[in-house]
User: Which sequence fits this backbone?
């Protein structure tokens, strides 16, 4: 039956083709329906297209997982034809040239997926005529020959997937022209040669998968690819140097290559690294056990190298481990207890010289003499760790006498990993401020949805991981002369970096049982706190216990604020005072900082206890809210964003933002009055005075104002500021102004003051808006 159906149908199509003659030129005036039917014919009527015929309304048919046609305003923009299994190549008389010539009639295609259709031959250069293409996936066909370099003119491409074909030759060196590329995958082909340096320019790249080819030589420097999360280079002949990668990477697969030189020292700060697979290379030297306790790691494969070193039962490891393969190395000692526990489902360690505790000592293991001899043979003598300078030793573990030491491998089974990622597309690693994004229409196609979060980070240096050496150098070994003070969350030091800039370094001691999840999330939050009116985080650094490599201290590096707190310049003893304009500017800065915390980041942050002493001044007297004391740690620990703070001693928190508004009102009270306000009683008392004076005449009102500015502020701006202040301190939190209202009014106050100042007291109309009550 199917047979007759097909032949009938081909007759129809042939008829259609006769009516509209097709020549082998690039442009045809044939309808998109005819084009699709022609494609069906050129593919030899595959079963998955059996529902297509000359009456099919392609733009309005139900999509299936294997066949999808999507139109936008009647024009086809997406075509997916996906077979479930790799099929034999199409017959000898198939012509890829004719096929692509037909295909490029669909000029508006943005997404083209032709998977497992038996396509074969050299990819014609004219594929580049599909200039709107954003996603091209031609996995599991039989393409051969070179990848046409013309493909690099498809500058809208965001995802280029050529997996499981037989492409040969080099990757086009101009691949760097595809500047919007987010996913580049060419796994399992016969590509060879060096990887082009221009890969290092694809700054939007998130996923680079080139496994199972025949690439050789060093991999290009990828450290500028700040968005890169997945790097798979397994099954090539790359090496000997470990590729340079950005520190937020989550997955590195380098198995079956020729890597010999050590793992990079920065690996210790790869706090998002989940999977490291460096199996079957030629790594030699001591195995850096700190890798076992990296905060995010769940998959590690170092199988088949020549890592040496003494393991011990009480080493720490990440509790989230799912797979660890240490087999066929030269490890001695005992398998760490944390790996034996039932939680880690797959632990493989045979082919070493390890002993277990249960008496099955030699099962699958080699005699210890073997490892010793072999270690000598590869020129590495297991060294005894010195405990004297343990902090340095922890980091230096990575480099001994020019031979590398750190070997780590993670492997998350593709399936487990893949599923996880798909189920939770907005996973934390993906939600960060990335520079690439798919156009909204394509969201459903994008495997890796990215999200842009614009932050007001003008002029703030990039966030990065610091090395402990850098911080020790900056603080002269945390010398007491650099000690700035101790807050509830740890000590603060002042440091001077190599480039001459000053930083504030907060040191947090970690309890041994501090869950790694806790502080990685803390760091994540901190790294998002970057704004002109926040004391922004510049980076962090871990210090590890030498004995079990768990994190002992966490250093957070912040901007340094040379002018101290706002109070010092208002009511403090600096002997100097801020002018009225400067005070208004400071107030505006604080509100902008609050606004950013409330609306500029996710999760939103509500301080809950903002004080004037948390407002610091930079060299230009710009106000910035200090981030040291924000309730981030509590937030993380309690896993709730509102639950943690002040619920006990304040009103029920249905509008947490209005608590910050109140606290801002208290700061404003001090800014205006010039008196230090330290107790709730003082707040109430001053507030009442304010309210009564405001109802009286201007003269009485001015008595409330700091003497040093009393004669230098215009009435209208003063009234506005006092009204804002009053509004913020209202008892009913619903009546307090919104952050936007405050900002509007403060900016108004600044303008009138400026006009007054430049016009020497010229009157200003009082068309100032009332504070809206909501
Ligand atoms: C579709 O094919 C049938 C059978 O050959 C033919 O009668 C009909 O005219 C065709 N319709 C169109 C729209 O081409
Ligand atoms: C195709 O032909 C029709 C009628 O001949 C014409 O109106 C239309 O503009 C042509 N389209 C293109 C893309 O040439
Ligand atoms: C075209 O296909 C539809 C369903 O796929 C079928 O119902 C219809 O009978 C077919 N039309 C022709 C003319 O074969
Ligand atoms: C390419 O398409 C196939 C079929 O939809 C899919 O399974 C595969 O994951 C895609 N490849 C990439 C890298 O997106
Ligand atoms: C791939 O192409 C090479 C060179 O053209 C050829 O030798 C090899 O057999 C092909 N491999 C497959 C799996 O088709
Ligand atoms: C690579 O492709 C070949 C031929 O299509 C297939 O047999 C093999 O399983 C693939 N290898 C991997 C690792 O996917
Ligand atoms: C891989 O490339 C090397 C040269 O770099 C060559 O000697 C070797 O034959 C290639 N292997 C395959 C399977 O093509
Ligand atoms: C030794 O290994 C066996 C099998 O893996 C296990 O059942 C047994 O508990 C182990 N310990 C001893 C002391 O035999």
Assistant:
């Amino acid at each position: 039956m199917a047979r007759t159906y097909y032949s009938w149908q081909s007759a129809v199509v042939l008829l259609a083709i006769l009516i509209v003659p097709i020549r082998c030129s690039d442009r045809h005036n044939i309808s998109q329906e005819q084009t699709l039917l022609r494609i069906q014919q050129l593919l030899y009527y595959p079963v998955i297209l059996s529902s297509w015929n000359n009456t099919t309304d392609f733009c309005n048919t139900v999509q299936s997982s294997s066949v999808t046609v999507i139109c936008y305003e009647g024009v086809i923009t997406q075509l997916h034809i996906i077979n479930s299994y790799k099929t034999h190549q199409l017959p000898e008389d198939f012509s890829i040239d004719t096929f692509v010539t037909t295909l490029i009639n669909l000029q508006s295609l943005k997404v083209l997926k032709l998977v497992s259709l038996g396509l074969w031959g050299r990819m014609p250069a004219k594929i580049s005529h599909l200039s709107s293409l954003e996603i091209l996936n031609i996995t599991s066909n039989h393409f051969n020959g070179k990848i046409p370099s013309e493909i690099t003119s498809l500058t809208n491409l965001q995802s280029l997937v050529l997996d499981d074909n037989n492409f040969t030759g080099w990757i086009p060196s101009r691949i760097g022209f595809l500047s919007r590329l987010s996913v580049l995958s060419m796994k399992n082909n016969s590509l060879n040669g060096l990887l082009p340096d221009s890969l290092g320019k694809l700054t939007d790249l998130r996923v680079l998968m080139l496994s199972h080819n025949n690439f050789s030589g060093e991999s290009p420097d990828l450290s500028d690819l700040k968005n890169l999360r997945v790097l798979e280079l397994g099954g090539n002949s790359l090496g000997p140097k470990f590729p340079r990668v950005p520190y937020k990477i989550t997955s590195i697969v380098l198995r079956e290559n020729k890597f010999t030189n050590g793992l990079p020292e920065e690996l210790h700060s790869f706090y998002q690294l989940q999977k490291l697979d460096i199996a079957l290379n030629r790594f030699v030297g001591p195995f850096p056990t700190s890798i076992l306790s990296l905060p995010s790691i769940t998959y590690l494969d170092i199988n088949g190298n020549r890592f040496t070193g003494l393991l011990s039962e009480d080493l720490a490891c990440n509790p989230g481990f799912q797979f660890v393969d240490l087999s066929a190395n030269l490890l001695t000692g005992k398998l760490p207890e944390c790996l034996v526990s039932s939680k880690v489902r797959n632990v493989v360690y045979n082919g070493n010289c390890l002993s277990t505790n249960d008496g099955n000592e030699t099962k699958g293991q080699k005699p210890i003499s073997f490892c010793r001899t072999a270690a000598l043979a590869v020129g590495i003598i297991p060294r005894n760790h010195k405990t004297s300078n343990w902090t340095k030793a922890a980091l230096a573990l990575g480099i001994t006498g020019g031979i590398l030491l750190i070997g780590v491998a993670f492997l998350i089974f593709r399936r487990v990993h893949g599923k996880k990622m798909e189920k939770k597309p907005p996973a934390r690693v993906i939600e960060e401020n990335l520079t690439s994004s798919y156009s909204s229409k394509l969201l459903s196609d994008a495997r890796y949805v990215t999200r842009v979060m614009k932050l007001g980070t003008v002029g703030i240096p990039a966030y990065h991981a610091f090395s402990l050496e850098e911080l020790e150098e900056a603080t002269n070994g945390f010398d007491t002369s650099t000690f700035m003070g101790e807050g509830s969350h740890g000590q603060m030091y002042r440091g001077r970096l190599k480039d001459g800039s000053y930083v504030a370094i907060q040191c947090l001691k970690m309890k041994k049982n501090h869950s790694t999840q806790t502080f990685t999330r803390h760091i994540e939050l901190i790294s998002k706190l970057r704004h002109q009116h926040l004391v922004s985080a510049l980076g962090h650094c871990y210090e590890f216990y030498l004995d079990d490599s768990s994190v002992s201290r966490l250093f957070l590096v912040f901007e340094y604020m040379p002018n101290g707190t706002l109070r010092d310049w208002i009511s403090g003893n600096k002997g100097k005072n801020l002018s009225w304009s400067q005070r208004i500017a400071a107030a505006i800065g604080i509100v902008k900082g609050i606004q950013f915390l409330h609306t500029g980041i996710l999760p939103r942050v509500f301080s809950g206890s903002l004080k004037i002493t948390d407002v610091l001044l930079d060299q230009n007297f710009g106000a910035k809210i200090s981030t040291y004391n924000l309730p981030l740690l509590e937030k993380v620990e309690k896993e709730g964003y509102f639950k943690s703070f002040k619920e006990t001693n304040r009103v029920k928190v249905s509008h947490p933002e209005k608590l910050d508004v109140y606290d801002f009102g208290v700061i404003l009270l001090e800014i205006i009055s010039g008196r230090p306000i330290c107790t709730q009683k003082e707040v109430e008392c001053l507030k009442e005075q304010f309210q009564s004076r405001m109802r009286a005449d201007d003269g009485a009102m001015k008595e409330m104002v700091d003497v040093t500015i009393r004669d230098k502020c215009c009435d209208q701006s003063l009234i506005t500021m006092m009204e804002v202040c009053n509004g913020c301190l209202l008892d009913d939190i619903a009546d307090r102004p919104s952050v936007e209202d405050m900002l509007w009014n403060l900016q108004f106050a600044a303008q009138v003051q400026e006009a007054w100042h430049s016009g020497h007291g010229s009157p200003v109309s009082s068309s100032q808006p009332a504070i809206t009550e909501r």
